[in-house]
Every structure is written in C-alpha cells, then in structure tokens.
Write a sequence for this structure.
C-alpha cells in the first residue's frame, strides 16, 4: 500500500495562512520556520520540504495573496456599464483584503525590506493593477470619467488601498459605520473625476 502524502496541498495552504496570521499578529521577527511549524501542528521538516526555507515561504505567501486576488477579479462579470464594473472591481479589492487580511501587508507593504518578489510574481501582481487601468480606460471611452487611465488608476488605487488599510486597522469607526465611510469616500472620488465636474 502506498504511503499517504503528508506534505500535500492542504498542508501547504495551512502553512501559508498560518504564516500570514503569525506575521500580521506579531511582526516579521516572529515568522520563523520553527514557530510556524508549531502553530500549524506540523514539523519544521515539512516547512522546509514544501518551501525550501523561510524566504521560499514568504515568496509563496506573496504569490498566494495575489493568486487569490486575481481569482476574485477573474470571477467578475463584465457588463454594459463600465463605471459599475469599476465599482465592482474596487469592491473585489476590499473583499479580498477582508478575506485575507493576514496576507495584505505582504502583498502591498514591505514587512520584510530584504524580500524582493521574483519576476514572475511581479508580473502577476502588476496584472491586477493592469485590470484596474483597463477598467478605467473603459470608463473614459464611455465618457463616464475624465482623464488618463493610468493617472486615474493611481488615484483610484490610492483611495481604495488607503480605505482598505484603515478598515483592516479598525480606524474607519465602528463596524456599522464602515460601509458608509466607504460610500462617502468613493462617491466623492467618482464625482471629482466625472467630466461634468471638470474645471469646477
């Protein structure tokens, strides 16, 4: 009888999520192979077998975060209303962060200054920004927003990333007020970018 696989995909994902939670809760210095193995109730050798070393683990955590985000974007349905699709993209960004708060800082911050994603991982991460530029280009072409899509993407990303970070930190107020804070900020941004307000 074949021996069961112990270092399988289920364990790999558990280690990635536990590594993210450890990083988010206690900071970069707490993320060690031994500490992670204890939290995940496995062996250090399992971590080494799956990821090679700590930096292989960090790279996989980064990759998994963007894989989940890209999957969420791919699940969005394109409609005949580009602005509605753009709003849905922003909601997908927020939803992914809320579902994976333990991976967010590694995806969009620098908890490990010495960590540099590989070229393929950078391409994957930039593809999610490319989806934003494309969505904004549709809005511009439809006359719904005014400006250069790349410049608009910087504005849009700055607001959505900022709001998401504040929400994850609990700085947008009580839970029952968070949605309203998002709506006010987003509507102010959209109004400011619509052609009818240009030059006001």
């Amino acid at each position: 009888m074949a021996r069961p696989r112990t270092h399988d995909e289920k364990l790999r994902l558990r280690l990635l999520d536990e590594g993210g939670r450890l990083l988010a809760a206690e900071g970069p210095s707490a993320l060690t192979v031994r500490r992670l193995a204890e939290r995940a109730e496995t062996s250090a050798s399992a971590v080494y077998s799956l990821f090679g070393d700590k930096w292989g683990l960090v790279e996989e955590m980064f990759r998994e975060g963007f894989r989940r985000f890209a999957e969420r974007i791919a699940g969005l349905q394109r409609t005949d209303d580009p602005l509605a699709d753009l709003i849905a993209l922003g909601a997908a960004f927020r939803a992914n962060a809320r579902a994976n708060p333990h991976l967010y800082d590694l995806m969009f911050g620098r908890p490990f200054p010495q960590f540099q994603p590989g070229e393929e991982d950078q391409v994957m991460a930039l593809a999610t920004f490319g989806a934003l530029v494309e969505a904004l280009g549709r809005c511009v072409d439809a006359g719904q927003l005014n400006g250069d899509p790349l410049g608009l993407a910087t504005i849009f990303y700055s607001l959505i990333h900022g709001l998401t970070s504040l929400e994850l930190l609990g700085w947008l107020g009580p839970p029952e007020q968070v949605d309203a804070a998002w709506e006010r900020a987003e509507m102010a941004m959209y109004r400011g970018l619509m052609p009818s307000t240009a030059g006001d």
Observations:
- The longest helix spans residues 119-141.
- The radius of gyration is 20 Å.
- Residues 114 and 145 are 39 Å apart (CA to CA).
- The chain has nine helices and no strands.
